[in-house]
Design a protein that fits this description.
This protein has 21 helices and 27 strands. Helix 6 packs antiparallel against helix 7 and helix 9 crosses helix 10. The chain starts with a strand and ends in a 6-residue tail after the last helix. The strands form 7 sheets. Strands 5, 6, 7, 8, 9, 10, 11, 12 and 13 form a 9-stranded mixed β-sheet that branches. It folds into 3 domains: 71 residues, Alpha-Beta Plaits (2-Layer Sandwich), CATH 3.30.70.20; 227 residues, P-loop containing nucleotide triphosphate hydrolases (Rossmann fold, 3-Layer(aba) Sandwich); 198 residues, P-loop containing nucleotide triphosphate hydrolases (Rossmann fold, 3-Layer(aba) Sandwich). By secondary structure, the protein is α/β, with parallel strands linked by helices. The longest helix is centred in the last third of the chain and has 18 residues. The protein binds adenosine-5'-diphosphate (ADP) (2 copies) and iron/sulfur cluster. One adenosine-5'-diphosphate binds next to helix 14.
């Protein structure tokens, strides 16, 4: 079976002279052409296409994807149109449970949820005629989705949706937060579960990304519905806030049906009762697995093989190092800094002196507003310190919140040194296919990849990357880890990577710096510590223990009060058994 997909945002037959048709060997035979034009729109016949891939390589705008499927997928649940994305299978919501969805961006998670919400009536791959629920109900006959769609048809299901791009709230709403939420004790109660009662006194325009996230979650929890969908509820929240968010969702929506898309594996694991894995080719097709236990589902996803479906979803396994100490040799000190203090807008920071080595990636952990950015700005000489540092170093910084101007992505890279904007960065972060797009219209994950590539492509002594994992899927997080590590090793430079996804920090870092204190008032920074000590310090402060999954090495949060939790606390081993 073969799938041919055209990205109509990129396809410009007027500019290329309909090149794909003229290079296609089937078209050249002169009988039945595989590539045709219908009303100015290019079409590729999947029946006639022989899968040679010539048009894919020749198209100047990278608009064509041809996939030779290794396995039969059956009838799609929905296809947007000819040569467009199609979705196979659906995640079945379960009342009284949280189901997590894990999988790559662009494989149909949002499409599935829009179908379950009744926003899209699935067409079962027949986009010629108007779809009806009756055929969908017939299609799912004998499964639990039959009764779901019957209730959806009768208008008995209301879905509440926490959107992914929380910054839209700031763009669309103005004024005091208290005017946006229902008045009353329930609102205060829910905000306090999220540690965010203080938001009521603020204006939307002044909120940080993390605060917008908490506002969006609170607003969803306050709405009445049957099915609740949370699209990436972790972004911009620190670890403690991620735990609070998870506990709030579980507690408030105990009897409801909850669906969560989340790429922070420790959070997905902690929050969900079951998971569905979605796999496929981004923008071309996606297929949902059957329901799986959380541990088993996440492990199958990481190992790249779905046992019940008997499908390999990736060529390689994603495994975490089980050792707590980096294998990178610490040979040459790159930068040594003394203990110092810095003050800024009523905030004070004290830093214990430390040393970093050539090629190291230092994970930086701690709550929001604790001075992580202030620390790096102090090293760069942008802030006065006591004693003065005079290190004379330059820093390339990727901020936590990425905003890009409305210009083609290519223009953003026009001043970077081509040698530094190297092939590895372009390839791993998949930048080339974004070069002609308007930067301001990219998705959250695409903006993040561009911002990381830009930061790594500047010549600097130190690199500071603030929450590079936000909006990236797990595979992309792994690639970002690899590219940052390789670029640092090659340039013999050092990166500080601030992040709140524990599995990602574990994966990317050689050592860890821990920031503790009182957000917005005072912060204390440890020197770079080995991972075991660093994580122990942070988790002890937060009161959370982690264990390692024996198969994949991934960190898993222990249930508070469980035997493992109690025993690890007693031994003072918050991170490793
Ligand atoms: P995910 O949520 O997993 O990132 P989506 O469901 O948003 O994936 O999108 C999957 C693919 O479906 C996208 O890459 C896009 O190509 C396509 N798509 C989404 N919405 C539409 C639409 N309204 N019309 C045509 N194609 C769409
Ligand atoms: P981090 O990088 O750890 O988020 P910064 O170095 O940016 O922290 O933060 C310390 C400074 O930032 C303080 O001056 C404080 O006023 C301000 N700040 C940033 N975020 C917050 C927040 N969420 N709450 C309170 N203060 C904050
Ligand atoms: Fe031209 Fe590519 Fe469109 Fe074919 S798919 S018409 S080669 S832009």
């Amino acid at each position: 079976m073969r799938i041919a997909v055209i990205d109509y945002n990129k396809c410009r037959p007027d500019k290329c002279g309909f090149l794909c048709a003229s290079v296609c060997p089937v078209n050249k035979t002169g009988t039945d052409p595989a590539i045709t034009m219908e009303g100015g729109i290019v079409r590729i016949s999947e029946e006639l296409c022989i899968g040679c891939g010539i048009c894919v390589r020749k198209c100047p705008f990278g608009a064509i994807t041809i996939i030779n499927l290794p396995h039969e997928l059956g009838t799609p649940v929905h296809q947007y149109g000819p040569n467009m994305f199609r979705l196979y299978g659906l995640p079945l919501p379960k009342q009284g449970s949280v189901v997590g969805i894990i999988g790559r961006n662009g494989t149909g998670k949002t499409t599935a949820v829009r179908i379950l919400a009744g926003e899209i009536v699935p067409n079962l791959g027949n986009f010629e005629t108007e779809p009806t629920y009756d055929s969908v109900i017939e299609f799912f006959k004998g499964t639990e989705l039959q009764s779901y769609f019957t209730r959806l048809k009768e208008g008995k299901i209301r879905l509440v949706h926490k959107i992914q791009a929380v910054d839209i709230i700031r763009k669309n709403l103005k004024g005091p937060v208290k005017n946006l939420l229902p008045k009353g004790d329930r609102t205060r109660e829910i905000l306090s579960l999220l540690g965010a009662e203080y938001l009521l006194e603020k204006n939307v325009e002044t909120l940080s990304g993390g605060e917008l996230q908490k506002l969006a979650i609170a607003a969803a929890l306050l709405r009445e519905g049957e099915v609740y969908f949370f699209d990436e509820p972790s972004s911009f929240l620190d670890i403690r806030e991620r735990m609070r968010m998870s506990n709030a969702i579980r507690m408030v929506l105990r009897d409801k049906t909850v669906i969560v898309v989340e790429h922070d594996l420790a959070v997905l694991d902690y929050l969900s009762d079951y998971v569905f894995v979605v796999f496929g080719e981004p923008s071309a097709y996606g297929r949902f697995s059957g329901i799986k236990g959380v541990r088993e589902g996440i492990n199958q996803f990481l190992l790249g093989f779905l046992r019940e479906e008997n499908v390999r979803i990736r060529e390689y396994e994603i495994v975490f190092e089980k050792r707590a100490v980096s294998s990178k040799p610490r040979t040459k000190p790159y930068l040594t800094y003394p203990s110092f203090t810095a003050s800024l807008d009523g905030f004070s920071l004290s830093v214990e002196g430390g040393e970093v080595y050539e090629g190291e990636v230092i994970g930086v952990v701690g709550p929001n507003g604790i001075g992580k950015t202030t620390f790096v700005r102090a090293l760069a000489g942008e802030i006065e310190t006591d004693p003065p540092l005079n290190l004379d170093i330059s820093v390339s910084h990727k901020p936590q919140y990425v905003e890009l101007p409305p210009v083609p992505v290519r223009e953003l890279f026009k001043d970077v040194n081509e040698e530094i904007f190297e092939e590895e960065i372009r390839r791993q972060l998949e930048i080339d296919r974004l070069l002609d797009a308007d930067a301001s219209t990219l998705s959250g994950g695409e903006k993040q990849r561009v911002a990381v590539a830009l930061a790594l492509s500047r010549d600097a002594d130190l690199y500071l990357l603030d929450e590079p994992s936000a909006f990236l899927d797990v595979e992309q997080r792994v690639r970002v880890s690899k590219v940052i590590n390789r670029v640092m090793a090659k340039r013999k430079s050092v990166a500080f990577v601030v992040d709140h996804d524990v599995a990602f920090v574990d994966y990317i870092s050689d050592r860890i710096m821990v920031f503790l204190g009182e957000p917005g008032r005072e912060g204390h920074a440890s020197p770079p510590l080995d991972k075991r000590r660093g994580m122990n310090e942070l988790l002890k402060f937060l009161g959370i223990t982690f264990r390692r999954d024996p198969h994949t090495g991934r960190p898993r949060i222990n249930k508070p009060g469980s035997q493992k939790d109690v025993e690890q606390r007693r031994r003072g081993e918050y991170y490793y058994e």
